[in-house]
Design goal:
Elements: H1 15-21, E1 36-42, E2 50-53, E3 58-61, E4 63-64, E5 67-68, E6 79-82, E7 100-103, E8 113-126, E9 129-138, H2 144-162
Parallel strand pairs: 7-9
Antiparallel strand pairs: 1-6, 1-8, 2-3, 4-5, 6-7, 8-9
Length: about 160
Amino acid sequence: MASSILCACQEKQNEKEVAKKIDYYNLPTFSKNNALQAVVEIPAGTNHKIEYHPEEKKFEVDSTDGKPRIINFLPYFGNYGFVPSTFSDPKKGGDGDALDIFVLSETEPSGSVLEVIPIALVRLIDEGESDYKLLPFLMISLSGLFRLKISMNFRLIILKLEK
């Protein structure tokens, strides 16, 4: 008995090709759901230092002296990245980059854009410059009313800091 199976396949676009085309640095800071957005550079659980390069619109493993930067002790315990359309002004003690963010959640691949609710801001000093790290939870992990209240309060804090 002969049988045949017909399949129609659509070729999936390589994730790296798609990521190259997106200008992650200039995405909106807040989503349509009024949540802060986070762009993941370094997935939780890895020890490779990955950075987004806005000129090339791609994510690459950072290197020092031509060698990949690998953290030799603990892997990243959360998804590390940045808040799009933000800037830490060097004239005010910042490092000249977007606001860093450390999302406390399961691992997400580089280039993921997450809706988050901030719970804390940590100020570090790195080579004499202020280097802030925002610590949020994923938006889906909090109840609606609580989520909205935190989101609105955080937006007010951001507006106050900008004045």
